[in-house]
């Protein structure tokens, strides 16, 4: 299947495509939550949906980054809750010191782990805070949280492939990594050139 960027060319097409499938994804996952009375829908699914449908060919939107990112975020959150003795304690509008420390531990771990796994996914930072702040405080919620993430990824894979967008099966292809590396090289070259001009 060849690469086809035409569907996402221009703001109007991208906006329509992302609106339709972001709406559909949240509707389907939300209905699953309603029918089963399980927490399948949670805030950080939203930014992931924007990435998976609005920028499906970016490295951070790949299934690897999405699944491992949210997984690392959630586990870091539960670890932080356990450390602070807050497992199972629900969210309260009064956020005391133990909760603040739990949130800090969770986010710090998520940042480090996702980088080490080479699975950076910005919405994972929201997932870890959702857990650490007590919105999904029970370890069993991890199963439902990750099930929702997998549902979103499968929907993105099916929809993007149907519309001839080569959304990867697991990780982004090598050319995406190379593109990022070349971009960083260009930025570095421009910085060195600017510094040389200032010295001259």
Shape: globular
Give the DSSP E fraction (strand runs of 2 or more residues): under 5%
Question: Into how many domains do the coordinates divide?
Answer: 1
| Main sheet makeup | none
Say how many strands there are.
0
Helix proportion: 55-70%
- The Rg value, from CA coordinates, equals 19 Å
SS content category = mainly alpha
Query: Secondary-structure element sequence?
Result: HHHHHHH
Low-pLDDT residue intervals, each spanning 5 or more residues: none
Q: Name the average pLDDT.
A: 89
Distance between the termini: 51 Å
Number of helices: 7
Structure overview:
This protein has 200 residues and is mainly alpha-helical. It has one domain (6-169). The chain is 68% helix and 0% strand. It has seven helices and no strands. Helix 2 packs parallel to helix 6 and helix 3 runs antiparallel to helix 6 (141-162).
Please sum up the structure shown.
Helix content is 68%, strand content 0%. It is mainly alpha-helical.
Quickly list its features.
single chain, 200 residues, mainly alpha, 7 helices
Secondary structure layout:
Blueprint: H1 11-36, H2 45-54, H3 63-83, H4 97-116, H5 123-132, H6 141-162, H7 174-199
